[in-house]
UniProtKB/TrEMBL annotation:
Coiled coil: none annotated. Keywords: Metal-binding, Zinc, Zinc-finger. PROSITE patterns: ZF_SWIM (PS50966). Residues 57-89 form the SWIM-type domain. Pfam families: SWIM. GO terms for molecular function: zinc ion binding. InterPro entries: Znf_SWIM. This is SWIM-type domain-containing protein. It comes from the Eukaryota.
Length: 198
C-alpha cells in the first residue's frame, strides 16, 4: 500500500512528459545514433546505415518500427530511429509509446489497496461455513503394463556390471579413492620425509 502511494507521489513531482529513466534512454540512443547515416525515403520512412557495423536498417516512424527490433520491444526510439527524428526536427517524446509517459505512470498507481480492519471486528455472517477444498491424492501416471513386443523384436541385453579394480592394492570391488590401504605414493613420500629428518 505504501509503495503504491510513494510511487504515485513521486510521479507527481516529475516535470515534463516522460519519466527520468525514459529520458536517459532517449539521450543514450541519441548519442549512439550520431554514428548513423540517414537516407530519407519519404516523410516517415528512412534507411539508416550504421557507420560502425555497416548494417542497414529500415525505420518507419509512422508505424514506430525499426529493422533491429529494439524500437518495437521497448517502445522507446532506438539508436537508428533517433537520427531520423532529429533530421525531421521533431520532439522525440512524441514517438515514445504512450504507456511510458508520466500520465500513464500516475494512472497506473492512482488506485490504492485500502487497509482492512482487524478480523475480530468483522461482522458475523449467517450461512454455511466455508472450508478449504479436500486434498485429492493424484493417480499415478506410471505405466501399469509393459509394451507388447513385436514377434521379431530382439530383447535388450542387460549391461554387465563393471568390476572395479584398485590401482593401489590390486583389490577387486573398490577403487584407489575408496581403498583402506595407504596409497603407495604417499607412503613413499612419508618414508623420504622420515629419512630426511633422521
Amino acid at each position: 500500500m505504501r509503495r503504491l502511494y510513494k510511487r504515485m507521489k513521486e510521479a507527481r513531482t516529475w516535470k515534463g512528459r516522460l519519466p527520468l529513466d525514459v529520458k536517459k534512454k532517449l539521450y543514450v540512443n541519441r548519442d549512439e545514433g550520431r554514428t548513423c547515416k540517414v537516407l530519407e525515403i519519404d516523410d516517415y520512412d528512412f534507411e539508416v546505415i550504421d557507420d560502425v557495423t555497416y548494417e542497414s536498417f529500415v525505420v518507419d516512424l509512422d508505424k514506430r518500427t525499426c529493422g533491429c527490433g529494439a524500437y518495437q520491444i521497448s517502445g522507446i526510439p532506438c539508436k537508428h530511429a533517433m537520427p531520423c527524428i532529429v533530421m525531421k526536427c521533431e520532439c522525440a517524446a512524441n514517438y515514445v509509446d504512450p504507456r511510458l509517459t508520466v500520465r500513464a505512470y500516475i494512472i497506473t498507481y492512482s488506485e490504492f489497496i485500502k487497509p482492512r480492519p482487524n478480523q475480530a471486528i468483522w461482522p458475523s455472517v449467517q450461512g454455511p461455513e466455508i472450508n478449504p477444498p479436500e486434498m485429492l491424492v493424484q493417480v499415478s501416471k506410471l505405466k501399469k503394463h509393459a509394451r507388447k513386443k513385436e514377434p521379431n523384436e530382439l530383447l535388450r541385453k542387460k549391461k554387465n556390471k563393471q568390476i572395479f579394480k584398485c590401482t593401489n592394492c590390486s583389490g577387486i570391488g573398490h577403487n584407489k579413492r575408496s581403498s583402506k590401504n595407504p596409497t603407495k605414493s604417499s607412503s613413499h613420500v612419508y618414508s623420504l620425509f622420515y629419512i630426511m629428518l633422521t
